[in-house]
Design brief:
The structure holds 3 protein chains of 3 kinds.
Chain A: H1 18-23, H2 28-36, H3 39-49, H4 61-66, E1 75-80, H5 89-96, H6 98-112, E2 116-121, H7 126-141, E3 158-162, H8 172-179, E4 204-208, H9 209-213, H10 215-221, H11 223-228, E5 230-231, E6 234-235, E7 237-244, E8 250-255, H12 261-266, E9 280-284, H13 304-309, E10 318-323, H14 328-342, H15 348-365, H16 372-384, H17 405-414, H18 416-425
Parallel strand pairs in A: 1-2, 1-4, 2-3, 7-10
Antiparallel strand pairs in A: 5-6, 7-8, 9-10
Helix pairs in contact in A: 2-6, 2-10, 3-6, 5-6, 5-7, 6-7, 14-15, 14-17, 15-16, 16-17
Chain B: H1 6-17, H2 26-37, H3 42-52, H4 56-63, E1 77-82, H5 85-88, H6 92-103, E2 116-121, E3 133-135, E4 138-140, H7 145-157, H8 183-200
Parallel strand pairs in B: 1-2
Antiparallel strand pairs in B: 1-3, 3-4
Helix pairs in contact in B: 1-2, 2-3, 3-4, 6-7
Chain C: E1 5-10, E2 13-18, H1 23-29, E3 53-58, E4 61-66, E5 76-79, H2 83-98, H3 114-122, E6 140-141, E7 146-148, H4 158-166, E8 172-175, E9 182-185, H5 197-202, E10 208-210, E11 223-228, E12 237-243, E13 246-252, H6 265-268, H7 271-275, E14 285-288, E15 291-294, H8 297-315, E16 320-324, H9 330-344, E17 349-350, H10 359-363, H11 369-373, E18 377-381, H12 385-388, H13 390-401, E19 405-410, E20 422-425, H14 431-442, E21 449-453, H15 462-475, E22 480-483, H16 489-493, H17 516-524, E23 530-534, H18 538-541, H19 545-550, E24 556-561, H20 566-570, E25 573-576, E26 585-588, E27 594-597, H21 610-620, H22 630-639, H23 681-689, H24 721-726, E28 740-745, H25 753-756, E29 769-773, H26 774-780, E30 787-791, E31 795-803, E32 810-813, E33 830-835
The chains are: A alpha/beta, B alpha+beta, C alpha/beta.
The structure holds flavin mononucleotide, iron/sulfur cluster and FE2/S2 (inorganic) cluster.
Chain lengths: 431, 201, 838
Amino acid sequence: MTERIVGARLHYEDSATLERFLATGGDDGLRKAVLEMRPEEVAAQVMTANLLGRGGAGFEAGRKWSMLRKAPRRYLVINGDESEPATFKDHLLVERDPHQLVEGATIAAYAIEASFVVIYLRGEFALGLERVQQAINEAYARNALGRSIFGSSFSVDIVLQPGAGAYICGEETSLIESLEGKRGFPRIKPPYFPAVIGLYGEPTIVNNVETVSNLPWIINHGGEAFKELGEGRSTGTRLFALSGQVQRPGPYEVEMTKITFRDLIYGEEFGQGLRPGRSLAAFIPGGVSAPWFFPEHLDIPLGQDEVAKAGSMLGSGSVIVMDDSSCPVRSAWRIARFFARESCGQCTPCREGGAWIDKIMRRIEEGEGREADLDLLLDLCDNISPGIKWPPAQTTICVLGPSIPPSVNAAIQHFRDDFLIHIKEGRCPHA
Amino acid sequence: MSRFTGEMLSRAEELVSLYPDPRSATIPLCHLAQEQDGYVTNEAMAHIAELVGSSAAEVQGTASFYDMLKLEPVGRYVIGVCTNIACMLRGAYELLEDAEGVLDVPVGATTADGLFTLEEVECIAHCDRAPAAQVNYRYFGPLDRESFETLVTQLRNGDLDDEVPPHGTLLRVRREAPAVIPMEEIDRYRAQEAEREKASD
Amino acid sequence: MPDELVAVTVDNHSFQVRKGVKIIDALDDIGVHVPRFCYHPRMTAVGMCRMCLVEVKGPRGPSLQPSCFMDVADGMEIFTESDAVKKAQHGVLEFLLANHPLDCPVCDKGGECPLQDQAFAHGSGETRFVEEKRHYAKPIPISRLIKLDRERCIQCDRCTRFADEIAGEPLIDFAGRGSTLRISTFSNVDFDSYFSGNVAQICPVGALTATPYRFKARPWDLLQSSSTCMKCDMGCQVSLQSSQNELTRMLGIDSDTINHGWLCDRGRFSTSEVNNVDDRVLRPRLRNQDSVVEVSWTKALRVAAASIKQAIDERGASSVAFLSGASMTLEDTYAFAKLASDVVRTNAADGAADVRVDGTLLLANPASINEALTAKTLVLFNVDPKNELPVMHLRLRAAIHSGLRVVEVNTTPTDLTPIVDRWVVIQPEDLAKTVDEAVAAVGDDRDGVVIMAGCRDRAVAASLNTALVAEMLYRFPQAKVLSGVARGTNALAVGFTPNAPQGIRSTDGVAPAVNADAILAGALRGEIAVLVLLDTDLVRLGLTEEDLVAFDHGTTVIALNTFESLTTRHAHVVLPLSAYGEQQGSTLNIEWRHLRLGRQVEPVAQARPAWMVATELASGLGDELGFLTLADIMRDLSQSGGLLAGLSYHYFADSLDGPLFPRTRTEPAQVRRVLDPMATPGIASIDRQGANFSAGNVIEPAEALGFGVNTGVAPKALQSPSVAKREGAVALDPLSEGEYWLHLVPRLYDPTPELMANPFLKAAVREPVLSLTAAQAESLGLVDGDRCRLVGASAVDVLVQLVKDDALALTVQGVTPATLRLIGDQSWVKVRVEKSNG
Ligand SMILES: Cc1cc2nc3c(=O)[nH]c(=O)nc-3n(C[C@H](O)[C@H](O)[C@H](O)COP(=O)(O)O)c2cc1C
Ligand code: SF4
Ligand code: FES
């Protein structure tokens, strides 16, 4: 049985209530942090823990914090925009353990000495928004937020901001723009990190919901204890969101690197395999931006570097399973269409390329394709992300653009015959 | 009624007061406008521009970027069927077709009685309950034709009124907290801390 | 200060480039052109179009980077021709063209379109895009002047950035997202901006077009010359273009010293009034009590000269008055100055009726525009740049945003007030306090102060205005002054107004001593026998139609005009003047910079340049002015000493901007001109089509003049504040119960005859408005949208408009001084406000 950290409380029906929270160690981490530790000591524990960001890019939280530009005002933004298709771990955390999130955010704010904190939640999380607002209200009421938290000299506010339905606002600079009341156009780099110039031009840390939800545990148990879980750079546990054509889709918290994709998809305590009679066609290891994996990749452990070495990414920790009844052309098209719809529209290659690829893929899927379309598709992908490699090169401002090619490329490379049947026979072999 | 008045105006002003920069309240105010009118009217956008100090064109520019902010009237219930990959692999397009049949409107349209607007939406992070759908951003799933029909009936009968308020009402929990700490107070405190640290070094 | 340089390699060749500039600018400097669409050298780089990608070597090898966004760094290795760069650029171009309509043959931009040029140069010639293109309704008007074709838009963010960042009026913005990203105004509200034309100029494709130019001409049919806009004395540099002897359009040229490529709509679209022959004065004509007859020039000039001669003989030279409030060319102005002083020998001559501040103050220690914008503190005194010198408003906004400290001293707020450092209200009851406050606002650091002095509020008497400026200068003796006067610079420079510094040119003629106000007052009293008007409408200067009718008994009005007006209708002798763009010449701007005027079309019908008329009138009076050509005038002016010593056309040959006067002024080394092909699309593209930009009809450079150029102007002694007070010039009676100080401020679109002749701009004229704060309105029992009557010496009805600003007094826009009988140099105007009936 693997250790539970962010999901420790989730098996209780009433995990979202203050009573349960307080009865299961709630506030201990925050108390310890603000009353017994100096901010830099908190940061040091997180550095020791080697907590990797859970939002997708997998950047060490401690290192990110240490890059914060010195300035009188600094901001903390918690990224709960979770819109990467098939990713639903933050959804679970905000709905089922909002107090842990608020506690974690407050600890992070203390560690980086933030002047102001915003929790930016995906607008569609109506229930999550209510629960987190409730948790914030209750935190103020017991002085876990506001002026002189728990009698310490630390004061901070948390404001809850609902998003309004735009995937790109998960990208941290786009999220900041959105938070400033603007369209969610990602900011052009450099500066490469909001830690230099972020919200209102001030240094800002953006951390994912799951990332900060780990903090109470890390403070309570120490960074070393966290680091002992997992292996190499991949420490602690992660919530993996398993979806698609498995028997038991769901969120599973597992110690990093300790199980393989095979375990996750087929294991009794996890996905329990495919539907009877089906075989695995492909799976995506880390959200739809990631290059696809195939049955030969099943034995790769769930670790950041392990997956990267095999040419994909662990990303947001969502594993999507496609069995042999699914049409890879259709799957790739649906993913391409998602990006086409969610492109912010700034960069020509993403705005025009994404929409174009969507149209071609759809045409092929509907039986109107031409053989030349396949080379055209690959060339358009190459114009968005030169070389179609991973990690990607890009002709765009943010990596949404370069997220378009992996699925299209994987489908064409591995399922060329499926494409050709669509094109030549005007039908889907999986229909 | 489209500008904020009375209770809505004081809620709007409270939202503006939460942020170091009033413009940050733009999206929350757009949600508030939807709560009031079901969608974001032109008058509301003009009023929001006044409240946050931008131009109406900018507020419109922002609002039109986001899928949840409707600039045209919609039904009392906006039903969004997710067809993204995880749901698609579990029959989302079939569900969407069923939904069109049950509601008797094509995707994007509103039923004649003004009750339902049907949408096809991107992943709503409910993939372990695929195929999933949202009604005014309250989540349901997994759904098939039968359970979808039941859902529609329940909505129509008002059985879900507690769970699913009319379109636009998002956050029914109000912020209950003291006024946010003025940035200057934080700045002052910071400066003092820095002094103290210097002195102790 | 020479630019600091850093070493870079470009395609494996070594170069030294300016430090801290964008890669794209550095590449431009060394002659490597990178294609681009969204980049504009005068706006923040956004790096959106991705057309300008180059490879830059980093620790992990070369990667594609937007050259418009990344700064050069020492040792940087840049590749502009690598396979990766070519592939990326080709890809971006193909993406841009995917949804772009193939309507170049009917597109206004066809022939000068960078997208078209790129497609021809690097496109594959064959489209791989077989899908349905994006469709939008088109073209949709977003204002009276601008039409939007969304299908042609390439989402470069230039127009929206201009509106937001440069004009500060974010009235157009993107709407939507992804491939539906589109330009939009708010619902049906117009893109109602003084500066809207710029977006059509900087749009790299044919998405935004200017209604007046639509389908007028093709770029390759256009002839052009470089010229200067004459709608105000900012002196914006333009490319004046024509086709088939009709002016087609004006484009801003990027002059680093003046307009940075921008124009206001009043200037940009002024070609439309020139073309409107229906409202032009076409032929000379005479009028007596009951008939109007068109006559030959000879006859008209004979009658004019005879009436002047008779007046001189019978009532003395001072009974002949010369009056103008227009922007005439320097040559025209000088010719009339000389006619008045040396031939007619009258002291009643004011060619700068709009100047209500003593020119001595403006010229004692003049600042250039760039000096003003880089001053430690700039004091804006009684000037509203947006309405009077619009492009100065844009330059000021940019300067303020990059840190210029501005103290604004004004009677009522302007559109700059929200962003200036301090706003000081001119308080009629206590002018001394006003000055004290302004001085305090400047603070202790008195060095490096520049005062931009104007005369915006027409209700402030000229003498008061001058006294206030004098006092400011008395307090800041080191301050430099930039003229904030919208019209009349040329008249000040050649001494054709009593407001000009004494001895500004050496002549044994009679110096002007009676100013416009006094001339008009005299004329109304019947003391002026002949009134010679230079392109001026008396109504704009304060007279009513009844006044004009009354001139039939005793005052002969000789009107030299370009446009018909009430004045020309009632004048006795009407002489048609050629219009802007119909004559060569030169002009001075507010910084006393000599700028050239191009001629692109023949004068309409029998119109002639004013200077020619002056020479003819002189000979009709049995004398001569001494010049037969423009070059003669230049030589004459140059030799007349004073400010304009050293004047010549010669220097125009090698610099687009002329020099500053007096020529003793030094200018910081010329900053590199940003003449980006995309900044002024017409110019570069037309050049590529063959027509020579500088060829046009610009005056041929004359030979250099060989004499000294160090004549400064000796300022009159400044009045000390105590003197001013003792003479009662700075103290006003307080208001009595129910009275208000009135402020009469100009708007860009005030109804002048030229404006009313402009079919595209006349709709912008708004009815007179009285701006009140909510509190003022309440105390007067008025609400927004009411009408009320202002009662002073006379009465006028105006529309009430509530404003948020803390205006301390009533402000009226759109009322000519005439309507309130504001003639003569009375002190500040008091009015009562009455509710109108109905
Ligand atoms: C297109 C795009 C979408 C993203 N969406 C999310 C998201 O929904 N949630 C999230 O936490 N991070 C998202 N990210 C990653 C964020 O930019 C950022 O790296 C992250 O929030 C940092 O938090 P972490 O360091 O705690 O992981 C996204 C990035 C991109 C490029
Ligand atoms: S890559 Fe796409 S989503 Fe990212 S900034 Fe560019 S256009 Fe926007
Ligand atoms: S991205 Fe550089 S010019 Fe557009």
